[in-house]
């Protein structure tokens, strides 16, 4: 048995591939374009493992994807590949439209042709799982109920609009062609291999480098944080037992204002790697111009996946964030590697010198 994963060299995709091969013996074909966000170092522990087949390429390349499907005959496709950073989507939306919308469309077309030609048993067993985000639902007011799967779509950034479009395409392929799809909409992930353009790894990395810790606006925007390995387990569970055509919201009931997150990271670093001058890392916090169109609050109502599929997060925020900070302290070579090349250009563009 084999599955095809797209975007499996990115943050969540690589955690998923590692988790999958820890939990099962099923081969993973990992198709990744290796954009700035893809990193084969994340998968270094799989060197020599015949169950992991890495293919460098674009998930929207029909000839390549058709070839991979025909050759490996996967029983499922799990689609992680995307442009994922909201701030980058504000500076340059085109890549988000091309990858998240057109790329997903091309993938769906290849998968539809492959699935349509399968014999009846394989056809009935096949699954296409699309990994999406809570950002498609837009922003919540402080007292509003958390997002359920029925919440209206109201994406506010080019990133979330492109993910929303991809979700609609996936839904339409089920409704129109009967393609056996599943969609997961997850909240903010954190954990190992998180690229340091996103809030938590950026704070850990900047703090140690003695750089400012840039908090957008008043820092009171709320996100709902989930340890990445819990997300990976949720995807495995939905693939195994989810009802075809259904959507599952995934989250950890862990709403926190950004400023609290930054203070928690600073306090952990004070404990695990104190500053040479004995001062607290929180002295490095700097308030900067807010993100345009910044969503104020996200919160996931995860009752459906908990009650119907029996999934629950294993980590609390306290255990997960401690593991995460420790992982970054233990892996300076990984951090140095991802900070080379285009990383500096991005930081200058977003935060100035
Ligand atoms: P990421 O940016 O870390 O990784 C994306 C990966 O996709 C990279 O390895 C990149 O090389 C690859 N990729 C990009 N374009 C490609 C293409 N055309 N063909 C093949 N590969 C391509 O993203 P992530 O944070 O790991 O997110 C993975 C998925 O999960 C995305 O679809 C994202 O929308 C979704 N998601 C992310 C979060 C989060 O908190 N990070 C939360 C919910 C959902
Ligand atoms: O909610 C799920 C989404 O979470 C995913 O779909 C996205 O792919 C993922 O990137 C993430 O989006 P966010 O925009 O929430 O994540 P980010 O880490 O960029 O920002 C988290 C919060 O922190 C957000 O309110 C903006 C703020 N922030 C971010 C950065 C990079 C800052 O205050 N300062 C910063 O320098």
Features:
353 residues; 3-stranded mixed sheet; 7-stranded parallel sheet; 13 helices; alpha/beta; single chain; binds nicotinamide-adenine-dinucleotide; Rossmann fold; globular; binds 2'deoxy-thymidine-5'-diphospho-alpha-D-glucose
How is this fold's topology laid out?
Elements: E1 2-6, H1 11-23, E2 27-32, E3 52-56, H2 62-72, E4 76-79, H3 86-91, H4 94-116, H5 120-125, E5 127-133, H6 158-177, E6 181-186, E7 188-190, H7 199-208, E8 213-216, E9 222-227, H8 228-241, E10 247-250, E11 255-257, H9 258-272, E12 285-288, H10 303-309, H11 317-330, H12 332-338, H13 343-351
CATH topology of the domain at 2-193 and 225-254 and 293-315: Rossmann fold
Task: Tell the overall outline.
Answer: globular
What assembly state would you assign to the polypeptide chains in this entry?
single chain
Order of helices and strands: EHEEHEHHHEHEEHEEHEEHEHHHH
CATH 4th-level superfamily of the domain at 2-193 and 225-254 and 293-315: NAD(P)-binding Rossmann-like Domain
Q: Please bin the fraction of helical residues.
A: 40-55%
Number of helices: 13
Q: What is the class of the domain at 2-193 and 225-254 and 293-315 in the CATH system? A: Alpha Beta
The assigned structural class equals alpha/beta
Identify the strand order in the major beta sheet.
3-2-1-4-5-6-10
CATH architecture of the domain at 2-193 and 225-254 and 293-315: 3-Layer(aba) Sandwich
Bound molecules: nicotinamide-adenine-dinucleotide, 2'deoxy-thymidine-5'-diphospho-alpha-D-glucose
Q: In percent terms, what proportion of residues is strand?
A: 15-25%
**Spatial gap, N to C terminus:** 50 Å
């Amino acid at each position: 048995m084999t599955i095809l994963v797209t975007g499996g060299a990115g943050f969540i995709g690589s955690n998923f591939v590692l988790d999958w091969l820890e939990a099962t013996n099923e081969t993973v074909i990992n198709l990744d374009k290796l954009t700035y966000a893809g990193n084969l170092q994340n998968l270094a522990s799989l060197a020599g493992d015949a169950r992991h087949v890495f293919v460098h390429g674009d998930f929207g390349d029909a000839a390549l994807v058709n070839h991979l499907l025909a050759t490996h005959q996967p029983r499922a496709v799990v689609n992680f590949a995307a442009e994922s950073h909201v701030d980058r989507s504000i500076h340059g939306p085109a890549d988000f439209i091309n990858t998240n919308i057109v790329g997903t469309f091309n993938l769906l077309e290849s998968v539809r042709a492959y699935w349509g030609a399968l014999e009846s048993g394989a056809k009935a067993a096949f699954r296409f799982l699309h990994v999406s985000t809570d950002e498609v639902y837009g922003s919540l007011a402080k007292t509003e109920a958390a997002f359920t799967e029925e919440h209206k779509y109201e994406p506010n950034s080019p990133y979330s609009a492109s993910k929303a479009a991809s979700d609609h395409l996936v839904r339409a392929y089920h409704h129109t062609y009967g393609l056996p799809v599943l969609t997961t909409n997850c909240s903010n992930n954190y954990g190992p291999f998180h690229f340091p353009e996103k809030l938590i790894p950026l704070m850990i990395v900047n703090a140690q480098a003695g750089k400012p810790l840039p908090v957008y606006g008043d820092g009171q925007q709320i996100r709902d944080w989930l340890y990445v390995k819990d997300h990976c387990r949720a995807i495995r569970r939905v693939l195994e037992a989810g009802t075809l055509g259904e959507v599952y919201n995934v989250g950890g009931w862990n709403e926190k204002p950004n400023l609290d997150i930054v203070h928690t990271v600073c306090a952990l670093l004070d404990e695990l790697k104190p500053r040479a001058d004995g001062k607290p890392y929180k002295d490095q916090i700097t308030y900067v111009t807010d993100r345009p169109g910044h969503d104020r609050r996200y919160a996931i109502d995860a009752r459906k996946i908990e009650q119907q599929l029996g999934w629950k997060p294993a980590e609390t925020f306290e255990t997960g964030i401690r593991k995460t900070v420790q992982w970054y302290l233990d892996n300076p070579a990984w951090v140095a590697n991802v900070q080379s090349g285009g990383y500096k250009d991005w930081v200058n563009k977003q935060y100035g010198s």
